[in-house]
Design a protein that fits this description.
CATH topology: Rossmann fold
Shape: globular
Strand order of the largest sheet: 5-4-3-9-10-12-11
Oligomer: single chain
Number of strands: 12
Helix content: 25-40%
């Protein structure tokens, strides 16, 4: 039986914040090819770290390939939808937190975040200070990591800085979205996250798919 919650709606069987009209549409249209390319480049049954978790749509697809998934989503409404939509999956670990470079940081959602790109629950970004914790990928101390997938609206470089030990130890495939939001929101140079991977971890670009860049060890 479907769980219905005030302030949410359903589309194609998944729970979404009621205000969203853009993210659900894009997800069902564009997810397939991205997941296909990830499957082609990683082993069946591995471990994935994914952020932002949004409403769980990518987790549902990644779960068909990976045995364990660690997913991060700071926004309370998105996290509720993520939890409901993936509650039936084993091996999925959900964190209502942002990813960053310093676990002692605290950040919160700025008042105007949901105005960005209109009615799109996938276009939220972290700003200001508040009660949403910032964790690091290295905090997980994973013995194995096959994929790090980052779609965090410009915060990709900060997440990579907080994953330095994991990247060096596990050499995962890293997929990151880059729509120049790191420049817009955090004052970074265009492509900074990719250059960080190349310079500090000897990674190179192996595929460019729309706004997503696949990076792997040389």
């Amino acid at each position: 039986m479907s769980i219905e919650i005030e302030g949410f709606r359903r589309e194609q069987g998944l729970l979404w914040p009621a205000y969203d009209r853009r993210c659900a549409e894009v997800t069902f249209r564009e997810t397939g090819r991205l997941i296909h390319e990830i499957r082609e480049r990683t082993e069946q049954g591995g471990v994935a770290v994914q952020a932002g978790g949004n409403c769980g749509q990518l987790v549902l697809e990644l779960h068909k390939h990976f045995d364990r998934i660690y997913t991060f989503e700071p926004d309370p409404q998105n996290f509720t939808a993520l939890t409901v939509n993936t509650a039936h999956l084993g091996g999925v670990y959900r964190f209502q937190a942002a990813l960053g470079s310093n676990a002692r940081q605290l950040r919160g959602m700025a008042d105007g975040d949901r105005k960005y790109q209109g009615l799109n629950c996938g276009a939220l970004y972290m700003a200001g200070s508040g009660g949403i914790p910032t964790l690091t990928i290295d905090d997980l101390a994973l013995p194995r990591c096959d994929l790090i997938m980052l779609d965090v609206e410009g915060g990709e470089a900060m997440a990579i800085l907080g994953a330095a030990n994991t990247i060096e130890r596990c050499k995962p495939l890293i997929v990151l979205e880059d729509k120049a939001l790191g420049t817009k929101f955090y004052g970074e140079e265009l492509g900074f996250a990719r250059r960080l991977l190349a310079g500090q971890h000897d990674y190179e670009q192996v595929l460019h798919l729309d706004n997503d860049y696949f990076m792997g060890p040389r």
